[in-house]
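Reviewer 2 asked us to include a model.

Predict the structure of this chain.
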Amino acid sequence: MTGQARWVVAGVLAVTVVLGLVIALAASRDTGAGPVTPERYQAAVADMREMIRLTEAGDVAAGEEAFWRAHPFLHDVDPPLRRRHPELARQLWDAMILLETAYATDAGPEDLLRHGRNVLRLLEEAGPVLELVP
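Predicted model (structure tokens):
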């Protein structure tokens, strides 16, 4: 391995470690497990819609705040959703992780919107599965 290749490998490992720390710190914003209720579901859907609206309007920081308001529910909904629809739960979890990572790496608005819309779509699919919508 050349000297330059070693530096590239070291850089990739360093970025991976830093990204892992950033995601762990972001996850620590959660207040803990809460009940999965129709009211919390509707609030999370509204927050994700707000995230998209604000990001489309160019206010990425406010859009990020809206995402972090929805974030605890996205974690809380995972266990009951996995029991009822494991594949949908996996997809929602993966989409949420991609959005977290996009925020942690200062991705552009187009990436934030793509991941945010995916989280919203999957969350809206989860509502009827968990009987959270009338």
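Helices lie at 3-27, 38-56, 60-76, 78-84, 86-104, 109-129. The CA atoms of residues 128 and 134 lie 8 Å apart. We have added this to the supplementary material.
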